[in-house]
Design brief:
The chain folds into two domains: 101 residues, 3-Layer(aba) Sandwich (Rossmann fold); 100 residues, Rossmann fold (3-Layer(aba) Sandwich). The protein contains six helices and nine strands. The radius of gyration is 17 Å and the shape is globular. The two termini are 23 Å apart.
Length: 206
């Protein structure tokens, strides 16, 4: 049975759409069980509905972080989600959430972590004058963009780059490596040892 994904987003849902496109093209053996947002007007929710997917708004106003996360976890478990994928979800997850899906929560970040965590990673890269940046898919832990790294893609920083042009080239790489990382985890081809994510060798039966 194909792995069931729970997508969490707060905005336009660009990476969500890329994941859905990879599934539709047969390039990712998974299905999107539910798309959830903490923003009622998030464009990503409407895009999910247009694709015929379950799209849910869960408001966080007046709730503590753990109370909100308990509602999220309850919904994800009701949908029998195998893997949680953050796609521009602008909230830090509580310890309760992390422990509910151990090594089953992924995030993508527009830098070569551990460099430039947090917001405005592309601007940080330009301000620091680095020659290369990129994007990172990692397991989510209780820190800020600090979980074990699954995949990275490198993007050169050009002399005439602006934050917009650099962001666009990084985003194109994000749309490719996120689905690859999802497939690796769903296929149990990764093993976490400390801070390292190792590839598990697969054996073929003859």
């Amino acid at each position: 049975m194909r792995g069931r994904l729970g997508i969490l987003l707060s905005g336009r849902g660009s990476n969500f759409e890329a994941i859905a496109d990879h599934i539709e093209r047969g390039e990712l053996d998974a299905q999107i069980a539910v798309v959830i947002s903490n923003a009622s007007q998030a464009p990503g929710l409407e895009k999910a509905r247009q694709r015929g997917l379950e799209a849910i708004f869960i408001g966080s106003k007046g709730l503590s972080r753990e109370e909100f996360d308990r509602r999220l976890v309850s919904t994800l478990k009701e949908e029998q989600v195998d893997l949680v994928c953050l796609a521009g979800f602008m909230r830090l997850l509580s310890s309760y959430f992390i422990k509910s899906f151990p090594h089953r929560i992924l995030n993508i970040h527009p830098s070569l972590l551990p460099s430039f965590p947090g917001l405005n990673a592309q601007q940080q890269a330009l301000e620091h004058g680095v020659k290369y940046t990129g994007c990172t898919v990692h397991f989510v832990d209780e820190g800020l963009d600090s979980g074990p790294i699954i995949l990275q893609a490198v993007v050169p920083v050009l002399d005439n780059d602006t934050e917009q042009t650099l962001s666009a080239r990084i985003l194109a790489e994000e749309h490719e490596i996120y689905s690859r990382a999802i497939q690796l985890v769903l296929d149990n081809q990764t093993r976490v040892e400390g801070r390292r994510v190792l590839r598990v060798a697969t054996t073929e039966c003859t």
